[in-house]
Structures are given as structure tokens and as C-alpha cells.
Sequence to fold (558 residues):
Amino acid sequence: MISLGINYSQMHDSAACIARDGEMLFAVAEERLSRAKHDARFPLLAVGACLDFAGVRASEVDFVCQSWPPPRAGLLHDLRCYATGQQPADGRALLNSMRHFASMWHQRSGENSFRAAFGPAKTPMRFVDHHLAHAVSAYAFSGCDEAAILILDGRGAWEATSLWRGRGGRLEHVWTIPWPNSLGLFYAQLTQYLGFVPYSDEWKVMGLAPYGEPGIDLSEFLTLDGDSYRVAARLLIGKDSQPCAALESRLGPRRVPESEIEARHKNLAFAVQDACEQAMLRLAKAAVAKTGCRNLCLAGGVALNSKANGKILTSGFVDRLFIQPAAGDDGACLGAALAPYLDAGGKLPVRKMRHAYLGPECSDGEIEKALGTYKIRHARLDDPARTAAEMLAAGKILGWVQGRMEFGPRALGSRSILADPRDPEMNAKVNNAVKFREWWRPFAPSLLAEAAGEYLESANDSPFMILTAQVRPEKRGVIPAVTHVDGSARPQTVEREVNPLYWRLLHEFGGRTGVPVIMNTSFNLRGEPIVCTPTDAIRTFFSSGMDALVIGSYLVEK
Fold:
């Protein structure tokens, strides 16, 4: 059975994947191919890449599954929210809802675009409820026969949070909290209040939070309620989806984007993150209690909150925690592709996901052609891992492009910028001269899985860089560039059998320095998607302060 999964909602993060007999072959977000960050258009490039990788035509695809229901469901829910006062109803917001409905209806939620570009599949496009797609994506890749599955989203068609129970390959819905009672909405509106882009820059608020201090009370906006929570949407959403005036009346003027970060901004970031963590901990505890399962799976955009995930892992509520690495909307396509297995009481193929290297690959031939096209001087390497380790130990900042691209928001050693974590100035160097981003943004460590316990107090199994852990006090001075101001880190543990080349790079670096840890950040500049092709990598390399580029079997130095 060949199944194509698509995420498309005209909101953000369109993506596609393809599976054969339940095995995920390929997955890519549209932004990586189109070079438009968070691209919301129908993912024609991603779908084409999926079909090319699998070597099939659209007419050979058994199921084309979209991870959103038809737009009518979302529109009706919005109208109910406006009518009942749950969401402030200004004319422009209502008009935008109607326009979105009309556009998606005209396209038949993307089916017309698919057929025009690729021709018909064997069956019409299937529409999967958004939270069901998220739940499948979390459970089917967890490796757990029995699990509680918690979906924490900005919004689906009508959902904000939902709980499912997985057992024996089947899913049972337990409860749903509808939009606009949404943790994602709470975090996004305050992200926007702080001068950042909502549903995009929440990372910045999370990184800023440890610089703040407690003292701001946000319980008027987010309240814990029994084993759940309540979000006061009317106090958060203003006209045209901007932050409500109630925020300014209670918290002071909004921060102007790109203006100086003041103490009150840091303190508010602390309060936002703390409130979200407390709500997520409450929901995790309730999920285990309601399902009787101490294996917990998370998906949805809020599940990318690595600091909260780390606290859930060490809370004592759970025995095992799995977060689907592409937990945001792009990763919902994975669940959509597998949803047909649930037909007629069927069972999902449940496998343990050990890597996210599901995207395109650059061959040495393609790399050499790109280098030749731009007449770039380069050298061919016998051992890229050894050369990279030598250069990193000498303080060089490297671009590293190897193998298949990662699916999801994290660079995991395929499309990465690498540096020496021992240099206390390296964080500032990479933020200022390479990434061109805010000074407070932390960097993550990649480390040998077998050395994780030596450096971290928890999260010893963290292959997807989606959990935070405390760096052991005696190691914080050893790897200062990847230890955040609160002593935490967002690690990636690298296993030899999963990524042999990247493991060997870490091993070689450790042999030279005694520290089998490398600073790893995504290979992109601020505001751009992670690089995909050799041309993307070359352009980004020469547009930044990196010293060298190790791409496939080739080395480029400035």
C-alpha cells in the first residue's frame, strides 16, 4: 500500500510524506524546497519530491490523505465562538474566516491543486481530523504498544488540546478541549505582545525566559482548573488577531519589534513559560491518570516546548516520554499517511522512531556540479569526520551538510552549523557573526549517547533535541557555549548505529579534546529555512561568518 500524507491549511508549515506498507520513506516541509519560511501554500514541491523518491506516479498512490478536515467544520466552529462570545467578533476577523473557507472550498482543500499538478490518485483525497493525524503521528512512531497520547496545539479545525489512548495499534479518543481554550493561543498572543512573530518565534520567548524573574501574575489569562486549564481568549485576542488591549492595560505597552529588551520583557517571558509549563505538567498528570498508561506521547506545536518536556520527563508521572520530532503541523502529514490503517477496525503499524533523516540527500556528483558552477575552490576529503573534528578543535565554525535532511524544526547533524562548545565566547560569535540573531538565543549540544550521563542529569536518551536537561554542575564550565544561563541544555544524543558519520565526528573531536560534545545549530540564517540543496548551503555559507564548509566529501574554506 502506498500512502501520501499532506499537511495544508493555508496557515503555516505545509508538508508532505510518503509511506509504503506502513514504512515512512520520505518526508519534507515545503519551506525547505521553496525557500519561503513556514510556507503555507499547497505543497506541490514537497509532493513532487515524495513521488520522485518513491518512484511512483500519482495514479499508483492508493491513498492521498490530508491532515485537516474540510474547511466547513472550522468555519462553523468559528461562527459558534463569535456567537457565544468565546472569541471577540470584529468584522475583519469574520471576513478573514469567510475568505479562508471560500479559498479552501474552491480548492477542495488542495485536491484540485493536487490533481492539476499530478493527475488523479486511485481514490479521492481523504480528509483526516487534525488532532487524529497528530495522535497517529505520535503513537505510531513511539514503539509503545500502550500509551497515553496528548495533543497540545494552537488549534485544529475546532480542537486545542485532546487526549487519546493507544493500545494494540488502535486509538481511542478520551476527551477534547475546543478552541479558543488553547495553550498555543496563550503563548502565541504573548509572543506577539513581546514583539515577536506568533506561531513562529515562541522559541525566542522560551530562550529569553531564564533571564527573567518571577513576579508577574498571568492567572487572569491562563488558569489551572482541576486536571485541566482555562485560557481567557477574550483578554488575549484583539482586532485582526492582534494582542488584545486588555494585555496593555494590565501589563503595560507592547514591545516594539527589534527594540531593546527590558527587564519587564524578560520577566514576562519567564511568566509565560512558567504558566505554560505548569499547565502542561497538569495535563500530563491527568493524561496518565485518565488512561492508566505511564507511557506518554506528545504532538502538536505546543509539544515543541522543550523546557516543559524536560520537566514532564523528570516529574515522576511517566515511565517513558516520546515526542514526535516534527510535532508541529508539518509532522501531522505523517499521521495522515498512516490513518488508513485504522479503517474497519484495523491496526496502526507501531514502530520505534530512532531518527528523523527522511528528507532529500545531496550526492557528491550534485555537490561537485554546484561547486563547479560557481567556480568555488574546494578539496576532496578522504575522511570528512576527521577533518571536521580537527578544524572544530582549532576553533573553526563549520557548515556541515551530510546525508538525508532532517524532517522537523531541528538540525540533527545533517544540515548543521557546528562549533567548539568549550569556548565561552562561541555562543556570542555564532549568534552575532553567523546566525545574525538575538544575543539571548541558546545553542544545543550534540553528544555521544554513551557520554550523556557524564554531562547531563537527565534526558540521557534524547535523539531529537526536543527535551531540556540540566547540565551537571561540574561540566557547565567545560561546555559553556551550550549551557544556558539557568544551567540547562537541549541535547541531541547521537548513536553510532543511527548516524555513523556524525557519531564518528563527535568521537574524533572527543579524542582530540577530551570532550565528546559539539555545539550544533541549524544551518540557516535568521528568517530563512534550513538549507536543503548544495546551492542553498553554498549561498548561506558565503553570506555568514562560518570559516569552512564540509559538504559531502568536499571542503570549502574562506
In short: The chain is about 35% helix and 20% strand. The chain has a mean pLDDT of 93.
